[in-house]
């Protein structure tokens, strides 16, 4: 699941009282019942539940250009997710990841069907031998810094790049080969570069290729490319770099370039952008995160439009299994044409405040 994607972040805006953690916590009790059976079988089961409240300053309108967090003045049940897997380093294995909630409906929408809040985000079989691994089925994309999983993504809101330029999931076959501790290569064939369509209506496929690099211990780099021929040819290039300055401080950079080539009466266009991330773990209780992003959208024959976003988040973790996130976000639009509704009009900016709780098990 996008292993190169780790949670990193930057600027905080809330201070909450600190709680101390005991250094001599008691040892975990021995496993019994179902937990013991799963442990002995090599099967792992993890999950989370998340819910949020958000208010924006768009005079009652939904937030433009946003899918996972477009509502205003509303409580949202985002995700109830569970992942069950058995992925041995040798031989056959499998993974199933299910999400139920409003976010499941958003992911389904990327397939062209957003009617159900139940989503099979991942379901694949795996075969591994030595340095070689191959998976087949449905799986999340290699591209991007942010992820679908609420317990692993750094902010409450998703970046413009995440939901407007990057694919979310793919259906197909992906192989990887670990050359050494510094280099892992990827090659795959999928149904669609952009949306990972559940229904494939033609023989054309998308080629997925990439490499994950760790040239030095604190630095990780992922370079991934998707080239597809469907109704029209398209190419998507993604680069992610993360640098761990210390145990408390990490920076990351995500750059994307997507190009759809015009074909007959079907117009093309391009999306390009970059997002910067930083995180600072102030204490065991409080972490500060931030994101700055620039995205340019240029449909063929239309003036380009540029969007900038600024996000600050604080994470309070009173327990390892429980996180409370508070976020402030401000978006601006260069207004070649505005995408930000504001009541009966449009504006060149939008902002919002949100709180999310996540319980992990």
Number of strands: 18
Biggest sheet: strands side by side, in what order? 1-2-3-4-5-6-7-8-9-10-11-12-13-14-15-18
| Class per helix and strand makeup | mainly beta
CATH fold-type name: Porin
Cα(first) to Cα(last) distance is 18 Å
Q: By CATH's scheme, which homologous superfamily applies?
A: Porin
Question: Which spans of ≥5 residues are poorly predicted at pLDDT below 50?
Answer: 1-25
Coarse shape: globular
CATH C-level:
Mainly Beta
* Helix count from the secondary structure assignment: 3
**Level of helix content?**
under 10%
CATH architectural group: Beta Barrel
Q: H/E element string?
A: HEEEHEEHEEEEEEEEEEEEE
From the alpha-carbon coordinates, what is the Rg to the nearest angstrom? Answer: 21 Å
Key attributes of the depicted protein:
disordered N terminus; 361 residues; 18 strands; two-stranded antiparallel ribbon; 16-stranded antiparallel beta barrel; Porin; mainly beta
Describe the protein in words.
This protein is mainly beta and 361 residues long. It has a single domain, classed as Porin, CATH 2.40.160. The chain contains three helices and 18 strands. Strands 1-2-3-4-5-6-7-8-9-10-11-12-13-14-15-18 form a 16-stranded antiparallel barrel. The protein has a two-stranded antiparallel ribbon with strand order 16-17. Strand 9 and strand 10 form a beta hairpin. The radius of gyration is 21 Å and the shape is globular. Residues 1-25 have low confidence and may be disordered.
């Amino acid at each position: 699941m996008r292993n190169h994607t780790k949670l990193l972040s930057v600027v905080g805006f809330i201070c909450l009282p600190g709680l101390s953690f005991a250094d001599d916590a008691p040892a975990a009790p021995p496993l019994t019942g179902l937990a013991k059976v799963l442990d002995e079988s090599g099967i792992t089961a993890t999950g989370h539940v998340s819910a949020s409240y958000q208010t924006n300053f768009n005079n009652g309108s939904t937030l433009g250009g946003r899918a996972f967090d477009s509502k205003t003045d509303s409580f949202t049940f985002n995700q109830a997710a569970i992942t069950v897997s058995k992925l041995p380093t040798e031989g056959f294995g499998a993974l199933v990841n299910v999400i139920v909630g409003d976010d499941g409906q958003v992911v389904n929408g990327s397939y062209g069907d957003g009617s159900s809040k139940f989503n099979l985000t991942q379901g694949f079989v795996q075969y591994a031998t030595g340095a070689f691994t191959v998976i087949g089925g449905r799986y999340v994309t290699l591209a991007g810094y942010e992820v679908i999983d609420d317990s692993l993504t750094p902010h409450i809101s998703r970046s413009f790049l995440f939901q407007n330029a990057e694919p979310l999931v793919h259906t197909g076959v992906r192989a990887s080969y670990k050359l050494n501790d510094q280099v892992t290569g990827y090659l795959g064939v999928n149904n669609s570069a952009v949306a990972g369509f559940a229904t494939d209506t033609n023989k054309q496929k998308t080629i997925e290729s990439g490499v994950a690099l760790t040239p030095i211990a604190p630095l990780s780099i992922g370079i991934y490319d998707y080239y597809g021929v469907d109704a029209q040819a398209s190419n998507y290039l993604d680069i992610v770099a993360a640098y761990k300055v210390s145990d408390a401080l990490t920076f990351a950079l995500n750059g994307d370039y997507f190009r759809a080539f015009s074909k007959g009466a079907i117009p093309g266009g391009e999306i390009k952008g970059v997002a910067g991330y930083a995180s600072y773990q102030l204490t065991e209780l409080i972490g500060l995160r931030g994101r700055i992003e620039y995205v340019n959208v240029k449909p063929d024959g239309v003036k380009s439009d540029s969007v900038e976003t600024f996000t600050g988040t604080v994470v309070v973790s009173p327990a390892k299994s429980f996180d409370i996130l508070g976020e402030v976000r401000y978006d601006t639009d260069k207004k070649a044409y505005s995408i930000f509704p504001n009541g009966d009009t449009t504006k060149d900016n939008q902002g919002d405040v949100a709180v999310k709780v996540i319980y992990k098990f």
